[in-house]
């Protein structure tokens, strides 16, 4: 079965109307563009050029803007729903008990797990759809405009695989895997997520029906160890909280929100990535259970560092207050 | 007596990780190890890049890592004359402490050495510590560099320099000699192609690949892995002693052990958590009961007061 059909079947199978990639519409635009270019130029000339015309009215005016809007909607919807779902799961205090009682009355625990699974599938299938349509664009135009657009989208943080919530949902799915859920056939597209260790390096792996695999590396590139108290910057790179604070030249007390907007990501050198950093709580739970010995050892060393930084912070505060 | 390292220090921890990584994935093009007495001081040797005037050369140098590593860049100094960099002078590179604004914490000693090899054939453009010798002079220096390692520093450091030099010599592929006959010419071509493949992919060493004995037991120590263990190159360990009451050997074993001691992925609530939850619910109920009692009492008093009036 062609991916286009699979994708449409999946989107129609959704109970709630979710934003998606207008595959048929975009394909029509590309066909129209192909007709236009073939009518304007002889075939050999267009092949010789091997690039999309500088000002292709179809591409500039319709294809990319509509794809950009669709991508924005998809990422927005995914982030919103994922955040809401994880808030329910990670609630604490009185709210936790209130939600627990509410859940018992409504029996929505399994629904919660199923929604998590569906959201991961939704993210991955849309990521593939976007990749496929951009490949088709490049194939038709003999260009690399599609790839260029993809990199621009990444810098705009509209790439769904960049979302920290995807990583959180994958961890959430592993954390609650013991609960057996009768998944609907329409949504049984991915074999599930798993935490794998390749050469001692941890990674979140998720395989989708189309033999497509998503790997999220969980090694902090600053301390070269498994991420501890992980935090995802807005560019999508994951680091230990302490490492991220050190890279941003801020103390743990002040936190990443107080980082200078000029500070860049230690991996991709993108600016202003610290302010919108997300604490990956589910991933933290998963890793703390998967490598307990390491976690306990790391807690000891982190505690020393945190106490030291807090002490320094309050010393400086006292000195400032006294006027020394 | 071996010096102990403070593994609670993030810089020390990171450096020990790099030592482990460097030894588990050795390269034919470079080798680097820290001094036993000071792990912030590294000794390295790089091979001159192929198809350049530096080809065949073995260039030694030292790396000084700052105490804030990896957030601050290291400084580099070459000890072998190359005709490209001055000796015993801190050189100016975009990866060195001369340009801290370019440095990224995700870079390591390995990436720095790869960058240094890539920098060698480039134009110096008057950078600090750079030289611009003629090609012939550089070729002569490259040949000379193989003869003997440079003499520098303490006997401890010199021993390490000699060790690294031996390792680099053992890894250097001899250039094939062209014979007049057609058959031998073809043979030499295939040998050259093989050598090129090896050098183009230096990382493609098998996990159990042995490093010659000349390099000494500091370079790599083979360790048998249990059948069910992860077949990871992290099983290869440093014999350098370190850590606060823990040798770096034990430290590396510890970090490997955590991979093997993986717990299943199911969420099992600890008994402590369950008790805590029950206690919290109990407390909540008790508080509600007390509040209700108080409320009932207060309404009773109110009723009595109203009757009296």
From TrEMBL, chain A:
SUPFAM superfamilies: RING/U-box (SSF57850)
Enzyme Commission number: 2.3.2.27
Keyword vocabulary terms for this entry: Metal-binding, Transferase, Ubl conjugation pathway, Zinc, Zinc-finger
All residue ranges annotated as the SPX domain in the record: 1-151
GO MF term (any one): ubiquitin protein ligase activity
Catalytic activities: S-ubiquitinyl-[E2 ubiquitin-conjugating enzyme]-L-cysteine + [acceptor protein]-L-lysine = [E2 ubiquitin-conjugating enzyme]-L-cysteine + N(6)-ubiquitinyl-[acceptor protein]-L-lysine
Residue stretches making up the RING-type domain: 220-269
Pathway assignment: Protein modification; protein ubiquitination
TM region(s), chain numbering: none
BP GO annotations: protein ubiquitination
Protein name listed in UniProt: RING-type E3 ubiquitin transferase
TrEMBL record, chain B:
Residue ranges of coiled coil: none
SMART domains: UBCc
Biased composition (Polar residues): 172-185
A Pfam family the protein falls into: UQ_con
Tree of life domain: Eukaryota
Keywords: Membrane, Transmembrane, Transmembrane helix
Start and end residues of each stretch annotated as Disordered: 172-209, 226-260
A GO term, aspect molecular function: ubiquitin conjugating enzyme activity
Gene3D superfamilies (alphabetical): Ubiquitin Conjugating Enzyme
Domain UBC core, chain residue ranges per copy: 10-165
Ranges annotated as spanning the membrane: 275-292
CDD domains tied to this protein: UBCc_UBE2J
GO terms of biological process kind: protein polyubiquitination; ubiquitin-dependent protein catabolic process
Bias type Low complexity, positions: 239-248
Listed GO CC annotations: nucleus
PANTHER family: UBIQUITIN-CONJUGATING ENZYME E2
Name of the featured protein: UBC core domain-containing protein
Lineage: Eukaryota, Viridiplantae, Streptophyta, Embryophyta, Tracheophyta
